[in-house]
Every structure is written in C-alpha cells, then in structure tokens.
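Operator note (shift B, R.M.): manual run for Histidinol-phosphate aminotransferase requested after the automated queue skipped it. Running by hand, logging everything below so the morning shift can see what happened. Input copied straight from the record, untouched. If output looks odd, do not overwrite the archive copy; leave it for review.
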Amino acid sequence: QARAGTPHDQDRPARQSILRLDSNENSLGMSPEARKVFARSLDVANRYPDGHAQALCDALAADLTVSPDQILLTNGSTASIRAIVQSFRQNRPSTAEGRVVAQDPTFGIVERLCRDLGLAYHGVPTGKDFAPDMVAMEKAARKDGGPVLVYMVTPNNPTGVVAPTPALFDWIRRADEETIFLIDEAYHDYVDAPSYESAVRLIRDGHRNVIVTRTFSKLHGMAGLRVGYAVAHKDTMADLSRFSDGWNINSTGLMVAKASLADTSWRAHCLRQNTEARTILTDTLDTLGLGHIPGHTNFVLHRIAADHADYKRRMADHGVLVGRYMRTGPGWNRLSLGTPDEMRRFVDILTDFRRRGWA
Ligand code: PLP
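Run finished. Output pasted below as returned.
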C-alpha cells in the first residue's frame, strides 16, 4: 500500500520494483553486524576518522598477512587505481616513456585515466571464450622496452574470466622492474577455482612491482559507502600514498568495513545465494539456447540474439536494468546477479523476450 509522506517515500514503490542487474552490486545488502555498526557510527561522525582508518588497516593487514604500512585505504578501489596510474605517470618524465597494457575487453577506468593523463593505452584482444591472451599481453608489454604498467583485472569485468595464476605469476617473476603490475582483484571474493591464487602472495614474497587493488563494493555489499584499498610492498606504498589524501574515507565506511570483514558467515551466505542465482540464470540460458561464459563473479556474460541497444531499452521498459554495451562484440550482454528471487523474476521476463524474438 502506498504511503503518503515525503517525495522520497512516494518514490519508493516504483524504485523497489525495478530489477537492478546492471552494476555488479550485492543485492542482499550489508551484513547485519555491519548494519549495527553503521548505526553506532552516527555517534562519532563529529570526529575525524584517523583511528578508524588505522583499525581497518590493521584488520586488513592481519587478514592478508602483510604489515599495515603495505595498505592504502581509498574512497572505493577506483581511487586506488587512479593513484597507481597517476604515480606511474608522474614518475616518468615523458609520455613517450610510459605505456599501459591491458586485456580487451576489460574494466574501462584505466583507459579513461590514460586519456586524461596522456598515457598510451594498448588493449590486447582476449582469446577463445574471452580468456586473456597472456603471451600476446607479455609481448605487447615488452615491445619497444621501457616502463610499462600492466593492468590485469582478474577475474575480469565484463567477462568473469580468471587469468591463469601460474602464467601470470611466471610472467611477473621474469619481468624487469620497469614493468609494473596493477592486479585488480575487485571480484577476488567470488573466485571458486582451486588453481587460483591472489597476487598478494607475490607482494608477500617481496615483489616491488606488484600492486593489488580490492574493494568492499562487491561481496561486502558496500558500493555506496566507497571503501577500497591497494596492497603493495612498503617502498612502493610510500610512493603511492603521495597520490592519495590521507583522510579520504568517512568514519562510517571505515567502521562498517571492519565489521563486515569480521562477519565471515554473512559473506558465506552471500556466496551461496550468488551461486544459486547464477544457477537459476544459467539453467534458463541453457534451456533458451543462449550461450554464456563460465565465470567467477557476481555477473554473467551471456549471448543475446538481439541488438544490444534494443535489448537494453526493452528490458528497461519491463523494469529491468541490464549491463551497458562493453566491447564484447555484438550479441553479448553482461548481467549482474541479483538475489535468487530477483533472478526468478528475470528469467521469466527473459523467456518471454525470447518467445517474442527480442533476445
Ligand atoms: N575494478 C573493477 C574490475 C570493477 O568492476 C569495479 C566496479 O565495478 C571497480 C574496480 C571499482 O569499484 P569501487 O570503486 O566501487 O571499489
């Protein structure tokens, strides 16, 4: 029943009925323990957040088996990535010297930063089933010599594909010190592959040219609170921290992130729900004869037999937000996974679309 009240209240029913399957968020929301801390954070909102930043750094350091001075907290991992690219740019006297190599397609932020900062960006096409072409990437990175920043998103967005750990680690181990690896592990928490290992291991082993970024925006369900971080060797971190403001996260985000980190049972619950949501979707895709890429994230890249712009518009008309077009070539859509109930709603709509020839 619609309630009379503020304009915000009146908006609510319409907003709730929209299925938001476009931005790789956690539809289940934050951990119940984290919500309690969120409420308590109101009591300290008048104070500067330093102590909370240190507490979160300490908790993350313990979790990752690194020291707190190896962690940079930022306003979402986007801000870590910006700091890394800026530091790479700033440390090179001329643009001709710095190049960035990434797989294509991948998350677009680094390419945009390169345009802003005047760095050359080279996207190396992915291979079969969107697997990163490690050989071609290494070749592109080595070409012409000189400093290069490798941006490796693993698992990748928008494909969900994990870069093979042995090949990536071998490449990093034989690379010269002018090759810097930015390993974006935004979806690390979702990976369920025995052969996968986080690149934090290489940082623990002492590699100065590896920086890993992570976020609380995905499995932790905190996209709106903006908490992310980078991990690196402490010397690398000393340079990187020059490109980030010390007090750039609010105390609420810091406190909630720490509580969320401690709530492992909520994360396990979210992972189970994600798997269930994925199965509901992929079973239907199989039934409808629409291919999909096996992935390790909270989204699925799948075939559509329709023009993407038409598909997206028609889905929006039916109250569903699907992913935007992401250089995957025609006939693909990236769909974020919602709750199992949301996915049941979605697959009914998709099945109807298929019947009408719209998908
Ligand atoms: N990296 C990847 C691969 C992403 O997909 C995203 C967001 O979708 C981000 C980084 C940025 O996340 P945030 O700034 O919310 O931490």
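Quick read of the result: The CA atoms of residues 21 and 336 lie 5 Å apart. Residues 24, 76-78, 107, 153, 157, 184, 186, 215, 217, 223, 228 surround pyridoxal-5'-phosphate (CB under 6 Å).
Leaving this for review. - R.M.
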